[in-house]
Design brief:
It contains 13 helices and eleven strands. The chain is an alpha/beta fold and about 475 residues long. It has a single domain (about 10-235, about 240-450), classed as Amidase signature (AS) domain (Amidase signature (AS) enzymes, Alpha-Beta Complex), CATH 3.90.1300. An eleven-stranded mixed sheet has the order 1-3-2-4-6-5-10-11-9-7-8, sandwiched between helices. α1 (about 10-25) packs antiparallel against α2, α6 packs antiparallel against α13 and α8 packs across α9. The chain binds glutamine (GLN).
């Protein structure tokens, strides 16, 4: 991979990444560039290399960090005004692990405030533009992270995003790159601004499956500071990087109900072609029906709004954003706090919150059963390609429906990745989603890599050169 090549110094690599980040300022990728700290870190790494000391697998590699990760003595806004002046007293475990591996954060990437959105139109710091067509949205909520990787300018080879209900996968799909959501608990969430604790995960964005695997192997693992992190090893740091499927024939289940009404014809066509190519690769493809999926979006919005209302109660105007006058939260965040408190209120708790949790359990059982018959499930990632900026902004429900395919794996806690599957006649990228059962993280990446080798569509370039 391009990442580990050490033919140039860390300082040169970081300077180059910062230069490109500034050249691409019209895309609104970063909330803050952490220039000084990045250059100081690069100097440290070069000095280590010169002294013959051991450096990590990502030595000197610049990356973008979504602005909901805390890095020491660095502002973290989660793209919300209430955190505008917040400077983090601690460092997220993921950031620490990347730092130990030698990676260098060049800046904090734009996102929907608190992760609330699918387009990065809900940032208090402006919309991030799509890497392939700047009149379109980047996708969200990890929009800045995705565009930093996808832009033809090659600002950074990878970025850290997060995925609560699709936030790594949606922008990956809209920008033609790979987006990973790991098994729930595979990666520590210590130092990540909480949105919905039962579905928040740490994800990454990269240009291909191999780069994504390298990053996930660095950041995954149990952490004493996050009691929801698990000690099962889902990403295998000591396995040779080029693990393949060893000629294994997988049973792929194409979810037929997600190829119907409301899904763009070209998205359906690319997904079916991808399924055909899976057959060519020797896999068995069948159709699967999961009737509970029709309830995934309503369950997701009841459960995650309840959790976000609870998590965001800490922003009480005392500890954070004391002097703000009414602009602490964007409209979408306010909406979710209101919905969340409503579904948790005494009169409606049973009717909405408890009901949603029960239906969620039925969805989990249905998916568990599907995985007794299939190894991997295949769907489009998003029902449509990147919309024009503003096109869906007027109606929040249009945004919620965008999560039709990405919300189910989040509610079930299983890994899901978005991988490039070609483009529309108009040249816009289409992504498909590979879903595995808990712990199948590496299998999904191996399958994605096999498909990349087959189609040579893994690396998709667009936007300005
Ligand atoms: N689009 C979804 C939402 O708005 C998912 C966002 C996310 O994963 N952070 O909640």
């Amino acid at each position: 991979m391009k990442l580990a090549s050490k033919s140039v110094s860390a300082v040169e690599m970081v300077k180059e990444a910062l230069r490109k980040a500034k050249a691409a300022s019209e895309y609104n990728i970063f909330v803050n560039l952490t220039e000084e700290r990045a250059l100081a870190r690069a100097e440290e790494i070069d000095a280590k290399i010169l002294a013959g000391e051991e450096v990590g697998a990502l030595a000197g590699v610049p990356y973008a960090l979504k602005d909901n990760y805390l890095d020491l003595k660095t502002p973290t806004t989660a793209s919300a005004k209430i955190l505008e002046e917040f400077v983090s007293p601690l460092q997220a475990t993921v950031v620490k692990k990347l730092e130990e591996a030698g990676a260098i954060c060049i800046g904090k990437a734009n996102m929907d405030a608190f992760g609330h959105g699918a387009f990065t139109e809900n940032s208090a710091y402006g919309v991030t533009k799509n890497a392939i067509d700047k009149t379109r949205v980047a996708g969200g909520s990890s929009g800045g992270s995705a565009v930093a990787v996808a832009l033809a300018l090659d600002i950074v080879p990878f970025a850290i995003g997060s995925d609560t209900g699709g936030s790594a996968r949606a922008p990956a799909s809209f920008n033609g790159i790979v987006g990973v959501r790991p098994t729930f608990g595979a990666v520590s969430r210590y130092g990540v601004v909480a949105f919905a604790s039962s579905t928040d995960t740490v994800g990454c964005l990269a240009r291909d499956a191999d780069d994504a695997r390298l990053v996930m192997r660095v950041i995954a693992g149990e952490d004493a500071r996050d009691s929801t992190s698990v000690n099962d090893v889902y990403y295998q740091p000591d396995t040779p990087r080029d693990i393949s499927l060893d000629g294994q024939q997988l049973r792929i289940g194409l979810i037929a109900s997600l190829l119907g009404e409301g899904v763009d014809a070209e998205v359906v066509a690319r997904t079916k072609e991808y399924a055909e190519k899976m057959k060519q690769a020797g896999h068995e493809v069948g159709e699967v029906d999961l009737p509970m999926l029709q309830y995934a979006v309503p369950i997701y919005y009841v459960v995650t709004s309840a959790e976000t209302a609870s998590n965001l109660a800490r922003y009480d105007g005392v500890r954070y954003g004391r002097d703000r006058k009414g602009d602490s939260f964007v409209a979408e965040t306010r909406r979710r706090i209101v919905i969340g408190n409503y579904v948790l209120s005494a009169g409606f708790y049973d009717a909405y919150y408890i009901k949603a949790q029960k239906v969620r359990t039925l969805l989990i059982e249905e998916m568990r059963e599907a995985f007794s018959r299939f190894d991997v499930l295949l769907t489009p990632t998003m029902p449509f390609v990147a919309p024009k900026i503003g096109e869906k902004a007027g109606d929040p429900l249009l945004g919620y429906l965008a999560d039709l395919m990405t919300a189910p794996p989040a509610l079930v806690g299983v890994p899901a990745i978005s991988v490039p599957a070609g483009e529309t006649a108009g040249g816009l990228p289409v992504g498909v989603q590979l879903i595995g059962w808990r712990g199948d993280d590496e299998k999904l990446l191996a399958l994605a890599e096999q498909m990349e080798n087959l189609t040579k569509e893994g690396v998709y370039k667009g936007g300005v050169a």
